[in-house]
User: What shape does this take?
Amino acid sequence: MATQVSPDIPGRHDSDHLQRSLSNRHIQLIAIGGAIGTGLFMGSGKTISLAGPSIVFVYMMIGFILFFVMRAMGELLLSNLQYKSFIDFAADLLGPWAGFFTGWSYWFCWIITGIADVIAISAYSQFWFPHLPQWAPALACVGLLLSLNLLTVKLFGEIEFWFAMIKIVAIMALVATGFYMVYAHFVSPSGRTASVANLWNDGGMFPHGWMGFFAGFQIAVFAFAGIELVGTTAAEAKDPERTLPRAINSIPLRIIVFYVFSLVAIMAVTPWRDVVPGKSPFVELFVLAGLPAAASVINFVVLTSAASSANSGVFSTSRMLFGLAEKGVAPGRFAKLSRRGVPSSGLLFSCTCLLAGAFLMWVIPDLVEAFTLVTTVSAILYMFVWSMILLSYIAYRRQRPKLHAASLYKMPGGAWMCGVCLAFFAGIVVLLSFEADTRQALLATPAWFVLLALAYQFVRRRPPGARASLPGNAPTGALGARVSPERG
Assistant: This one.
């Protein structure tokens, strides 16, 4: 029989399972927050300098593709409510190796993303404290996030809810302010007049040609890192059949409002040649407009955005370690929950790994160079995880046709669209080889998969009793629930 994950009962915590403590408002705001990350606030400065106004098309293309990836993930998760994350359906549909590689790669994705976030936090802190050691804000951030996440799952949801609210209000205010400046023909201290024509008056929409356009994809992909976080929160959502579709279906609108409108507003007020690659254009817009007080407010917003992303990473990595430990492919201590129902050992380990960000800033003092390096590695690994979701969907369509026919939340385009998305990701990997800074990270990333392959061979040789809990070898889900091939 299938074993359900126990609901969250006040005053009671199941020692074996994560709790369903996240409400609809938590899931919706986590989904929105996951789509607004450090890559947009900090990385958009470099992408604008590389691609010019055509960066708007870059974000639209990536967002269009990722919407279909999320729809595939949504159909898979809802096809069997015993699937608690994409580790479960990857292991069930593709085999044990897929669960192992996907789970550990996703953990590493968020560790790398968290390192990028603490680098960004250090960069934002320089706005107010230029003489502060760069590693100090990173240490403070990691310590704070660890303390907060050791409490309860519901507290994580509340933190993310308010972090996301800050980002939403700030971006809406920035868009409104930018468009008002255009309407009022605002003239900055540098003599620039705000106008939508700034998008094409200086070299056109593609001022650096197609190569500049393609160069913008690297950090733009990273900007969407975390968009799949709504899938990892499924195990702790009270009503996944209602909350997941609503969160995923709102992705296109979020991309238009938060990415396209904000970038148009920035480049209308601040012509793209005036955007400084090493600084957040969200902050610089108000600096160039002669509003330093507003710039301080926006700097606070982008700092909380980076903290929000790091907070999501700490949460997500601890849950991945919990699921992997449940399967016997991670140390057993990661499968133990605290009295508050929190995987505290996984949290401690992930936060310790995040401290590598402080070390990296000591090795590479240039924050932009360090940020580019880690975001490229992260983007490659995220595309691997997204590709595993698509490959799992293709296998699901082939192996479970009845479940697909009965699904009320089918992916548009089906397996054919999966092929289009996979080809798109392959094309981006090729593009990463064109630039020297991204090529370095591209050449280093295969070392991670070699390490995983060696580790998996070791795990496969374990005694049969220990190997029984490997993903795909037994019906145990990533978060401790039983997985049955067909629902209901």
Remarks:
- Residues 1-16, 464-488 have pLDDT under 50 and may be disordered.
